[in-house]
Design the sequence.
């Protein structure tokens, strides 16, 4: 966040230009951004697999099966 602020705010522009830091800061920002995206992808992948495993566990358990004819179906009232 600090690097992006230096690259985008006008207050820091004269220092970035005078020390010729735009290339270095741009590369640094891209590297940090790529690392952050890689971490986020790993987190999403891990959570997705966890959700798949949990839903497989729930659907394979005997208590999770639907009854063939639930009692609430026979008690349905006609809509008027």
Sequence:
């Amino acid at each position: 966040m600090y690097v992006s602020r230096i690259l985008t705010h006008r207050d820091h522009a004269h220092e970035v230009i005078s020390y010729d830091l735009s290339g270095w800061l741009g590369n640094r920002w891209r590297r940090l951004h790529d690392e952050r995206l890689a971490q986020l992808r790993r987190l999403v992948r891990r959570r997705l697999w966890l959700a798949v495993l949990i839903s497989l566990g729930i659907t394979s358990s005997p208590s999770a099966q639907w009854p063939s004819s639930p009692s609430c179906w026979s008690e349905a009232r006609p809509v008027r």
